[in-house]
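Worked example
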Amino acid sequence: MDYVNLPDSSVRMHANKGNQKPDVPDPLTKLFRLVGVGFGLLCILQAALNVSLRLTVFKIDTQPSTTETVCRNETDNQRPLIGQYIQLGWVYFHTSLYYISSTKKTWQESRDFCQQQGADLVIINTKEEQDFTRQFYRLTWLGLRNITKRRRWTWVDGTTLTKSYWGPGEPNGFEGKTENCVEIRFFDLENSWNDIPCEEQNFWLCEKEATL
């Protein structure tokens, strides 16, 4: 019988192990692992950033600046409630609120009414405002009068008249009367003012500064 020299079983086992390839991670698996680690780091950074921002915003909100406090107080305490005035019959035009009366009073009584509303008789500052006051088609007191012997016309805020819109031939002291107050009379004309005695009865127009 021929005998064949066969390697020992332990030798064969080691040989087989020596021939097996070592477990090498798949490149795709490596990529997934790297992406997962990177995403985890981004989440941690994002969470830290959110916490930092929340703390900063909280600090700003709980410690308002002096300027912010002043503006807030002005808004709460000084700014007119425009919507409420409009509901009471006032009209908003440019930067002011206006109230046209439905009854008649003397110039001084009319002014007293306006001041009780935190306003005063209207002062004409621009051509647009002059055109606005003519549209009511009523004999209406203006906040303009002559309180000096030199016929120096002065607005109710103390400023001297510079730009005027007197009607033809006005002011004239008609029939020798003392006409120291001013009304809107000539509605269809840009120059609509007329001087009359302050004791006459007229409608009136109040003006109150407003801010939106």
